[in-house]
Write a structure and sequence with these properties.
This protein has 600 residues and is an alpha+beta fold. The chain is 25% helix and 29% strand. The protein starts with a strand and ends with a helix.
């Protein structure tokens, strides 16, 4: 594409974007509400602008980056045969009612009413709409497989919008969906998406891991997440040297074998006044009831934690969770396990309403649906039959020792809610785990027949009978990617864009006032644009070189070209933003040198 044109005097001038005209206002100070680097830098460098919490405007620079990311996503999606379409963001209630998500989404869903009072919503994700579209248009196995996607604005009323565009209430997602007649088809669609995601994230140029996203209880790799490795991330993941990687929510605990409890003495109530915490309890046990083999440790105690579950229909259910006393209950793991119910603290009023529960001294003897309290009781997988515990005796100031799981108490089931710690063993035997933080960039998920069943998506199979379609859903956080790339690629002066997504290829700076400099830069910009290079041309006549350099470093275009004092000796400077190295090249060789820089 030739974009250099001649003006009416016949001289070449460039169609380059000029800083003098670009709709931008760089800021020297960080915005007051920004905590993470990407948020600070994207606002300061003039890529985005806040409208309301979690809602941002894309300024021209930002939109250029966003468009480049979208282009990469489109290329890779079409390479696996997915077709792009687009649903509305404003949707009717009924489909979401049929899948129960109108309720399950809880306060995260933006619900609106039209002028007739009809319920509508702003789409948080579109499984329902895609499923219904396929149901509407397809009827036979011959129509399948199908792979459809959109790049579209989503709405979620996030409890904690955060970090600029990293967690917005309005954001852009690529969501795709696969439709197959059988499990083998779904596996293939899943694998193709996985491969496409690897290519997308490789091209976007940040460090990422692929982690198991659910406990695998349904078998295999039914769901995986692509996490950008980042200290500012909200997700914690684990990995072992042997190759296991999982979201902390998905880590399963290798449960020990059940043990014989034949010779454990009977449970014994002990007086432990003033010991409502594990620490105080362990101290008193060690002074008053010392063990013969070794000292009491927090891990010998069984801690019973109470929470209040709030189900989507609003019902409140108390839940007790038993974990070894040296571990906390991890809120996120718990939330994942009980979803779609939400977790609220167990208040003083709740204790008052359940007099059997003595705060600080709760023991499992009175827990369980069949017990006096009637409170559902779930145990950490480590509390296997035959394990021996010190725990509450359900009386103020009293505990019980030698309480044996399976002999003296039972539970209503197992729950993976205890915290995961560095050094814990991977469930697949691949060694100890280390913990790190990440930002979820993509999620691939074998949905199976859940949505197709609820919405009645069936097609005729080869034998002429109706069969339910199996589905996958696959998401990429397109707007979030802009933030993630900046998180992984910046320095103390500003953004350092990877070439693939940079808003321009070259940032051309005139550093000086001499008219020859402007002429030389103008001609260089024209030649570069003619060669297909996009140029941000800092042509501002009254701005000092120092300010221009600061802006260039803040904005982060990978190649900065300076036409300045050197011009008198026939040279211009080419700077690499990433390595912060510069070299002089002859003006006449400028275009060639810049092209070789860009094309690597
Ligand atoms: P998270 O755990 O971060 O809330 P999620 O699991 O709810 O994300 P999905 O429903 O799997 O997200 O959505 C697919 C992708 O959309 C995510 O992998 C993420 O990259 C992106 N995404 C989700 N929520 C947001 C948001 N509030 N702002 C920006 N991007 C988001
Ligand atoms: Mg997800």
């Amino acid at each position: 594409m030739i974009v250099a044109v001649c003006d009416d005097r016949g001289s070449l001038y460039a169609r380059a974007m000029r800083m003098s005209q670009l709709f931008v206002q760089t800021l020297r100070d960080d915005p007051a509400d920004a905590e993470v680097p990407s948020h600070k830098l994207l606002v300061r460098a003039g890529y985005i602008r806040r409208v309301a919490p979690g809602i941002y405007t894309w300024l021209p620079l930002g939109l250029r980056v966003l468009n480049k990311i979208e282009a990469i996503v489109r290329e890779e999606m079409s390479s696996i045969g997915a077709q792009e379409m687009r649903f509305p963001a404003l949707l009717p209630r009924e489909p979401y009612e049929e899948t129960n998500r109108w309720e399950e989404y809880g306060p995260n869903l933006f619900r609106v009413k039209d002028r007739r009072g009809t319920d509508m919503l702003l789409g948080p994700t579109h499984e329902e709409m895609f499923t219904l579209a396929v149901k509407d248009m397809y009827s036979s196995y011959k129509d399948l497989p199908a792979r459809l996607y959109q790049i579209q604005t989503k709405y979620r009323d996030e409890a904690r919008p955060r970090a600029g565009i990293l967690r917005g209430r309005e954001f852009i997602m690529k969501d795709s969906y696969s439709f197959d007649i059988d499990d083998a088809g779904l596996e293939k669609a899943y694998q193709d998406h996985r491969d496409a995601y690897v290519r997308i994230f490789d091209r976007l140029g940040f460090d990422y891991v692929i982690v198991k996203a659910d406990s695998g209880a349904m078998g295999g790799s039914a769901s995986e997440e692509f996490l950008a490795v980042s200290e500012t991330g909200e997700d914690t993941f684990v990995r072992s040297a042997g190759g296991y990687a999982a979201n902390v929510e998905a880590v399963t605990t290798p449960a020990p074998e059940a043990v014989e409890f034949g010779d454990v003495p009977p449970a014994q109530v002990v007086q432990t006044p003033g010991t409502p915490t594990i620490e105080t309890l362990v101290d008193v046990l060690n002074t008053e009831y010392p063990r013969e083999d070794r000292a009491w440790q927090a891990g010998d105690t069984l801690k019973n934690v109470l929470v209040m579950l709030v189900h989507p229909d609003g019902t409140r259910e108390p839940l007790a969770i038993g974990v070894p006393g040296d571990r906390a209950v991890d809120e996120k793991r718990l939330e994942t396990q009980v979803s779609p119910a939400e977790v609220e603290p167990f208040t003083e009023a709740d204790f008052a309403a359940h007099p059997a529960l003595v705060k600080g001294y709760i023991g499992p003897q009175i827990l369980g649906e069949e017990s006096v309290s009637g409170v559902r009781y779930l145990l950490d997988p480590r509390v296997v039959s035959g394990t021996v515990w010190a725990t509450g005796a359900n009386e103020e100031g009293q505990h019980v020792i030698n309480l044996v799981a399976g002999r003296d108490f039972a539970s209503d089931g197992v729950i993976e809610a205890a915290e995961v710690r560095a050094g814990d063993l991977a469930p697949d035997g691949s060694g100890p785990l280390e913990l790190a933080r990440g930002i979820e960039m993509g999620h691939i998920f074998q949905l199976g027949r859940k949505y197709a069943e609820k919405l009645g998506l069936q097609v005729l199979n080869e034998n002429g009978s109706l069969t339910t379609v199996t589905m996958g859903s696959y998401g990429v956080g397109v707007s979030r990617a802009v933030g993630v790339i900046v998180e992984s690629s910046h320095d103390d002066r500003g953004i350092v864009w990877p070439r693939n997504v940079a808003p321009f290829d070259v940032h051309l700076v005139v550093a000086g006032k001499a008219p020859e400099m402007f002429e030389a830069a103008e001609s260089l910009a024209g030649s570069l644009e003619a060669a297909g290079v996009s140029v941000l041309f800092d042509d501002r006549p009254k701005v000092s070189p120092g300010v221009k350099f600061e802006d260039a470093e803040l904005i982060g275009v990978p190649t900065i070209v300076v036409v300045g004092k050197g011009l008198a000796e026939g040279v211009i400077e080419i700077k690499d933003r990433q390595s912060n190295t510069a070299r002089n090249v002859a003006v006449d060789a400028g275009v060639e040198e810049i092209l070789s820089e860009i094309r690597g």
